[in-house]
Each structure stands twice: as C-alpha cells, then as structure tokens.
Amino acid sequence: MCNAFFRWVHKNDKKDIFMFTNFQSDYTSTKMDILKDSNSIAVILANGTVLRKINAIKHILKETKKFIIISLILKIVPNFIANFLYDIIANLRYVVFGRYDSCPIFDEKYKSKFLN
After folding, report:
1. Helices 2-12 and 53-64: crossing angle, nearest 10°?
2. What pLDDT, on the 0 to 100 scale, is given for residue 18?
3. Which of 65, 78, 83, 93 has most Cβ atoms within 10 angstroms of its Cβ?
4. pTM for the complete prediction?
5. Where are the domains of the chain?
C-alpha cells in the first residue's frame, strides 16, 4: 500500500512540493530524529511542524486538490475518530498487502523524489 500511495501522491503533486523518505532511511535516522519511532505517514512542513496520520492525509489532499468530498468529510469528523479509522485501515493493510521492512520503490523515475 505504501508503494501505491507514494505513486498516487507523486502523480498528483502538480506543484512538485512533496519529497519522500522511509522511516528506516539514513536521512530519517540522522536528520529527523522526531520520526524514529513512527510507523505511519508523516508530513514535515517547511517550518518543521510534523503532521501525522489523518492530519498528514488532510494536508496531502489539500495540496493535491484531490478527493475534495473526502477532504470536506475529514474537516467535519473529529481527529480522534478519523485517527481511529486510520489505525484500523493501517492495520488491515498488512493483512491485505503484506508487511515490508521498508517501503519498496522500484522505478528509477522516482529516485529524484527520495531523500536518502
């Protein structure tokens, strides 16, 4: 699922603002100590603020201007409920897609978007 989500964000990032790394990368372990114990999506804003789980999803949807109806629903639903549902989906993804030790990205065309 991480690979599919990465590809979706990459395809829909018309402003070319998103860069990617995985939680096991040298970049994360040396420059983003705040993420070392994370196991879900995180967005790091230019000012250093870290958005996690549903707040990260909201930010990505806002910046890509996709799934506007879902974005509106997420604005209405309290974060604790949305994060609860996020956790359920996150746990189910391992059952459906399997579990990787890292998020594999195979295509060369994506290498420029990754922070190692």
Report:
1. 30
2. 86
3. 83
4. 0.77
5. 2-102
